[in-house]
């Protein structure tokens, strides 16, 4: 088995009790931290009865963080326990909840989050939205198409379980060493790591990912699988712009005003008409007019096979 998470496939029934012995975890280094929590790289001994330790990521709250932060982490864990393993969803390996601090152990994704990864693959340091280029030594256009397709597959799995993610964005997709994309960060009550970017605008109930939100979520606080489809369209746009911030140059109030009037983002430079057409379908005003994730997987497969 070793480090390959696919060797640790667990039956959905078994996943309900994955309490993990804390002394079998050796924490190595902090991968990222924010206001409420941190993610730590670690080795876990004896996962699935294996002799070799497995590299994992441990999500936990920080010393002195609020009761809310702990509750949020437990809520996220509860959500993850509902999801049977899928190659495009980050896999829950186990958890330590009997004593504090709570640890949620998930598979390690060596290339980090997709937003950071895409930005690292830009060919010019100071690329702007208009002249962005992919460094083809690191990433090909085919990789980008594959990322979008994989995200749709992961979301089709999540949606099939009637789970609404509410925070689909490239920063919440992780990528493993084989460039496999994995949906992560379940529940909007998630930890907010990136405090210096403006992707979560302050609202009464916390910071909201305004630029990824569908009109019905922004204006009426309504969320559904179809609002996740809208966010998927924004995530597609991010992938094709190597993670530019959506609605470049528009402030959140200006963006909301434009959306109300039917404005949509234009076609990214490195995007063909067919792919843009799929993106635009995700941004239909009426949620019912948007495709399902299963439709999206099929539409994207058609585009990818045609390009070959
Ligand atoms: O781009 P990154 O290295 O990828 O920076 C962030 C940081 O932790 C805070 O979220 C990284 N991270 C989160 N979960 C995982 C994971 N399962 N495997 C590897 N890195 C992770 C993320």
Automatic annotation (TrEMBL):
<comment type="function">
    <text>Receptor for basic fibroblast growth factor.</text>
</comment>
<feature type="domain" description="Protein kinase">
    <location>
        <begin position="25"/>
        <end position="308"/>
    </location>
</feature>
<feature type="binding site">
    <location>
        <position position="59"/>
    </location>
    <ligand>
        <name>ATP</name>
    </ligand>
</feature>
<feature type="binding site">
    <location>
        <position position="172"/>
    </location>
    <ligand>
        <name>Mg(2+)</name>
    </ligand>
</feature>
<feature type="active site" description="Proton acceptor">
    <location>
        <position position="167"/>
    </location>
</feature>
<feature type="binding site">
    <location>
        <begin position="32"/>
        <end position="39"/>
    </location>
    <ligand>
        <name>ATP</name>
    </ligand>
</feature>
<protein>
    <recommendedName>
        <fullName>receptor protein-tyrosine kinase</fullName>
    </recommendedName>
</protein>
<feature type="binding site">
    <location>
        <position position="185"/>
    </location>
    <ligand>
        <name>Mg(2+)</name>
    </ligand>
</feature>
<feature type="binding site">
    <location>
        <position position="171"/>
    </location>
    <ligand>
        <name>ATP</name>
    </ligand>
</feature>
């Amino acid at each position: 088995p070793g480090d390959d998470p696919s060797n640790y496939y667990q039956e959905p029934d078994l996943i309900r009790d994955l309490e993990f012995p804390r002394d079998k975890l050796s924490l190595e280094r902090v991968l990222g931290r924010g206001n409420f929590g941190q993610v730590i790289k670690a080795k876990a001994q004896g996962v699935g009865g294996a002799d070799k330790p497995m590299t994992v990521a441990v999500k936990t709250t920080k010393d002195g963080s609020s009761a809310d932060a702990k509750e949020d982490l437990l809520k996220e864990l509860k959500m993850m326990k509902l999801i049977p393993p899928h190659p495009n969803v980050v896999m829950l390996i186990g958890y330590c909840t009997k004593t504090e601090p709570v640890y949620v152990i998930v598979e390690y994704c060596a290339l980090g989050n997709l937003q950071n990864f895409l930005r690292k693959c830009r060919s010019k340091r100071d690329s702007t939205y208009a002249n962005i280029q992919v460094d083809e030594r690191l990433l090909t256009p085919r990789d980008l198409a594959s990322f979008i397709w994989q995200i749709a597959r992961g979301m089709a799995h999540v949606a099939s379980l009637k789970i609404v993610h509410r925070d689909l964005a490239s920063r919440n997709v992780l990528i493993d060493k084989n460039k496999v994309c994995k949906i992560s960060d379940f529940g909007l009550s998630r930890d907010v790591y990136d405090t210096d970017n403006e992707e979560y605008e302050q609202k009464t109930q916390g910071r909201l990912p305004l630029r990824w939100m569908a009109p019905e979520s922004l204006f009426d606080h309504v969320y559904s699988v179809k609002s996740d489809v809208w966010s998927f369209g924004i995530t597609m746009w991010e992938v094709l712009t190597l993670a530019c911030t959506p609605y470049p140059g528009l402030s959140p109030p200006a963006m909301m005003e434009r959306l109300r009037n039917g404005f949509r983002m234009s076609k990214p430079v490195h995007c063909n008409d067919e792919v843009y057409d799929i993106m635009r379908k995700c941004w239909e005003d009426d949620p019912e007019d948007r495709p399902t994730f299963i439709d999206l997987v099929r539409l994207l497969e058609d585009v990818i096979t045609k390009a070959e």
